[in-house]
Amino acid sequence: MRITEVGLRTVIRSILLREEFDAEQSNNSPGTKRKIYVLVGPPSVGKSNWIGMNFKPGAAYIISRDQIAEDVAESIGWTYDDMFHKPGADAQLGDTDPQFGEVVRSPAYMTWRPLSYTGVVEANRAIGSAFGARVSGAADSGRDIIIDMTNMNVGSRKGALRAIKGREGEFEKIAVVFPFEGAEGAVKRVSAARAKKAKALGKSKTVPADEIDRMMGAYEPVTPAEGFDDVIVFDNRATLRDLAAAADAEEAADSTGTGSR
What we know:
A five-stranded parallel β-sheet has the order 2-6-1-7-8, covered by helices on one side. The chain is an alpha/beta fold. It is globular. It is built from eight helices and eight strands; from the N terminus they run H-E-H-E-H-E-E-E-H-E-H-E-H-H-E-H. The chain has helices at about 5-15, 45-55, 65-75, 120-135, 155-160, 185-200, 210-215, 235-255; strands spanning about 35-40, 60-65, 95, 100-105, 115, 145, 170-175, 230-235.
């Protein structure tokens, strides 16, 4: 599936216009600084739950690369996982796949894989373009901004704040940290359970356990030197352990035939 320039513009436009913002939903009072929240935590740690607890739908301008990837995937009839599909270990340059295209050398920025499919490269180009457009519209949105990504190291958080570059004085910068230490297994179990539920709905969104381990291993705690005005800690570990235990119990019941029909 090739993404044409016209198709790419259509995808970007649909992503940018998807939210209908009602000014009455805004959390901002006249004359107050807006806020930019940089969420910090691995996948499946509770970031989306925190957003839902604190913001009405449409009240904040959310920047989520994952959501953009899902939108682009849907626009071309792919799943989220398809967007990152890679050639097998025995693949050679010039091999072709009816869905993903030809095997080529990966672009320089794809440092994590030597070979890619042309379709996947184009899809990721579309993600990058749509993401850049989303970031560019943040400061002018009139809303609080939420960077809903993992932001696990200093460099990624610095990049997140580029959404307000040149207008930093208009915003209060807040890091929202989701502790995971001691609950690493629960995080991965919840992620696997979500992937299983997505598959049951005909979708496919998988974050491999080793990738979550890599993110956790590279974590850099937020420090005062990063310039945040405030740091909020949302400790969701007890809930994650409960969710992991529930997923284990459900799987055990299914395996013994005692689960719900």
